[in-house]
């Protein structure tokens, strides 16, 4: 059978082939594999599934919180579980940086539960970084999100510094140009950045992150801005006050977040930035119209993110506890 010349293939097929080859090269180079624990911890998948299912049923905010925890871990020097480390008298860890203080306890708890169960089953075998990567994917699916393959074999970092989190994690108040630059520095395109921003279709934002701007940002729907002001009226006295990122389907992973933005129903300044910057508007409109395309691109971007800055071999360790180095 004659080979089909690339010029005769549709653009989508060519793109898929390029992505497949790129991922294959990345997997080979990183020494990760889908069945990394097949022999060393055969019940890995069963234990993970049971743990996250029980936790999500008990606390429905776990999935969105874990997705955010994963992003904060990976975006800062790679997917290495560094965000899970606790501070010591000699070091202030990432999780104690001001930007990370709002990371939800349920997300940390589900990782601790999975790690505890896996240590009983197969001690000193499964990394906290791998646990976080798989938990994020599986919890995302429980919310109706897309499936993507998680390759395993990451090692855990021995270093975690709050100072890095303050300077290197994107804040919702940053200009869109700055956010685009931060993603580009890590090898992500503008379209991948917009796709990943779709994670705001679930979860919460704390009032302190946007309340100061409600009267000044003309991109808010006026009635929505008024409702946010009422919901956040007590936030100076109660900094834990928060609102849903997507008021339409807050617990379902879908494309409603993108549909909300043209209507002025974005919560954060960065949400509005996506629909005011000419570089990002086309992708917002694309994902608002086509949920399947959003899911496809989000899954690809999440898989790419899961490879970012990983540690393998002697570059890391398998922590016995996720909150402390060995």
Automatic annotation (TrEMBL):
Compartments, record wording: Secreted
Domain Plant heme peroxidase family profile: 31-326
Residues that hold heme b according to the record: 200
Annotated GO CC locations: extracellular region
Site (Transition state stabilizer): 68
Predominant location: secreted
Signal peptide bounds: 1-24
Binding site for Ca(2+) 2: 201, 246, 249, 254
Residues at which Ca(2+) 1 binds: 73, 78, 80, 82, 94
Enzyme class: oxidoreductase
Domain of life: Eukaryota
Disulfide bridges in this chain: 41-122, 74-79, 128-322, 207-232
Record keywords, A-Z: Calcium, Disulfide bond, Heme, Hydrogen peroxide, Iron, Metal-binding, Oxidoreductase, Peroxidase, Secreted, Signal
Catalytic activity: 2 a phenolic donor + H2O2 = 2 a phenolic radical donor + 2 H2O
Gene3D superfamilies to which the protein is assigned, alphabetical: 1.10.520.10, Peroxidase, domain 2
Functional description taken from the UniProt entry: Removal of H(2)O(2), oxidation of toxic reductants, biosynthesis and degradation of lignin, suberization, auxin catabolism, response to environmental stresses such as wounding, pathogen attack and oxidative stress. These functions might be dependent on each isozyme/isoform in each plant tissue.
PANTHER family: PEROXIDASE 31, PTHR31517
Name recorded for this polypeptide: Peroxidase
Highest classification ranks of the organism: Eukaryota, Viridiplantae, Streptophyta, Embryophyta, Tracheophyta
